[in-house]
């Protein structure tokens, strides 16, 4: 089917199309033969359906590549933040186990045995090694460390290489160390929800 603006059609075509009593707007006027343009005298054929051109595909590919380059680091950062929850959960388990231990004794437990389920020393997903800082356990406090495992995909998290919780005299302090073992400035970026 051909489509044409009524100004380009001949009188007989207009009369024939208007015979059913319905008025059709410009894009839906049907013409059953090629039209000769009144302005240029050229034969106007109906547009053929075609696929995408190579240029259109290349432009689309370039736009997708640019968007991916911008979005990929943001996505990776969000995944790293999500994996930090693994360390937070393991630290919370150690803290609860230490408080249970302390409720029956005069000091906190000095080693990790029995603090995590199945006597494990890694977090549930295996991204962090969980430990008590050497010499930190006293009658009134302790320090729990969650250090990124070297073989884990979380090893690329250079900002929060070690997450720590210091319990001292009933007060809890959340902190972290970067890959160079330097403490992150407050507010700590690793504990932000």
In brief:
This protein is an alpha+beta fold and 193 residues long. Helix content is 30%, strand content 18%. The model has no long low-confidence stretch (mean pLDDT 81).
Explained architecture:
The chain has 193 residues and is an alpha+beta fold. The protein folds into 2 domains: 2-44, no CATH class; 83-177. The protein has 2 helices and 8 strands. It has helices spanning 11-17, 54-104, and strands at 2-3, 30-31, 35-36, 43-44, 128-132, 141-148, 162-168, 171-177. Strands 5-6-7-8 form a 4-stranded antiparallel β-sheet, covered by helices on one side. The chain is elongated, with a radius of gyration of 36 Å.
Uncertain regions spanning at least 5 consecutive residues: none
Strand order of the largest sheet: 5-6-7-8
- What is the average per-residue confidence, as pLDDT, rounded to a whole number? 81
Determine the structural class based on helices, strands and strand pairing.
alpha+beta
Largest sheet: 4 strands, antiparallel
Helicity range = 25-40%
* Number of domain units: 2
Strand content: 15-25%
Number of helices: 2
Q: How many strand elements?
A: 8
């Amino acid at each position: 089917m051909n489509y044409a603006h009524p100004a380009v059609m001949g009188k007989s075509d207009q009369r024939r199309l208007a015979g059913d009593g319905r008025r059709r707007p410009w894009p839906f006027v049907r013409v059953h033969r090629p039209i000769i343009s009144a302005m240029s005298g050229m034969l106007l054929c109906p547009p053929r359906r075609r696929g995408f051109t190579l240029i259109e595909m290349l432009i689309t590919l370039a736009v997708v590549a640019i968007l991916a380059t911008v979005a990929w680091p943001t996505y990776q950062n969000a995944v790293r933040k999500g994996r930090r929850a693994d360390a937070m959960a393991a630290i919370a388990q150690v803290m609860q186990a230490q408080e249970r231990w302390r409720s029956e004794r005069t000091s906190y437990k000095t080693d990790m045995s029995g603090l995590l389920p199945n006597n494990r020393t890694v977090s549930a997903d295996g991204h962090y090694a969980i430990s008590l800082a050497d010499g930190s356990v006293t009658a009134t406090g302790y320090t729990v460390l969650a250090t990124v495992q070297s073989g884990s995909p979380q090893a690329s998290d250079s900002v929060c290489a070690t997450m720590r919780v210091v319990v001292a005299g009933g007060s809890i302090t959340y902190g972290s160390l970067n890959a160079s073992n330097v403490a992150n400035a407050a507010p700590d970026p690793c504990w932000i929800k």
